[in-house]
Amino acid sequence: MRFELLQALNAERSRRQACAVVTDLESGEQRLVREADVAADPLQEPLARAFRSGRSGAGEDGRIFVNVHLPPPRIVMIGAVHISQALAPMAALAGFDLEIVDPRTAFASADRFPGVALQSDWPEVVLAKHPLDAYTALVAVTHDPKIDDHPIMEALRVGCFYVGALGSRKTHARRVERLLAAGIAQHRIDRIEAPIGVDIGAATPGEIAVAILASVISAFRKRKMHAERRGEMKRA
């Protein structure tokens, strides 16, 4: 691989941007393709398949090889609650990095979350240092608008592949009113999964965690590509 190509690849990966190295197996020529540019690429179909599946491989005609690089998918949980305690080990088993954010130090303690990336600060502060992106799922479970609302709005703004919020339909209706008052468009608000998680009749924290993880996995595997998300955001 050419040095300048390696530099460009590493730059994209450090920014958590999906990209692929396309190699012509006959000539040995290589080029970098960013996910945002797939729609205009002559190899649109094989590239789109690679980005959706996350799997590298040769094209159908055997003439090219697509080596795809996706950012590690992650879950940012707003709220260090019992559901978070149950979800943390399951998320790791499913291959998701997980970070928990909660300014309430009585909840966000290492004793309650051993080995988990834990931020005991306000979401506004944490997300300014560690921004959300399209390969992040935002899960808000505090029931406190002062803690949940900002990260939800930020997740909708940047196009997180999943946005879910704990609460009853009545609670969510009030949340929708606040988001509309803050200037968030209705079609963006409609992306929020609330009540949160797949409808399996979950009742306990562990069951709710299973339902949430199922929704996150489904959203990640069925996610739209960056170019499609960017088009929707421009139409907003």
TrEMBL record:
Q: Which residues cross the membrane?
A: 200-220
Q: One Pfam family for this entry, by name?
A: XdhC_C
Keyword list (alphabetical) reads: Membrane, Transmembrane, Transmembrane helix
List residues of the XdhC Rossmann domain: 76-215
Q: Which InterPro entries match?
A: MoCofactor_Util/Proc, XdhC_Rossmann_dom
Question: In terms of domain of life, where is this protein from?
Answer: Bacteria
| Name of this chain's protein | Xanthine dehydrogenase accessory factor
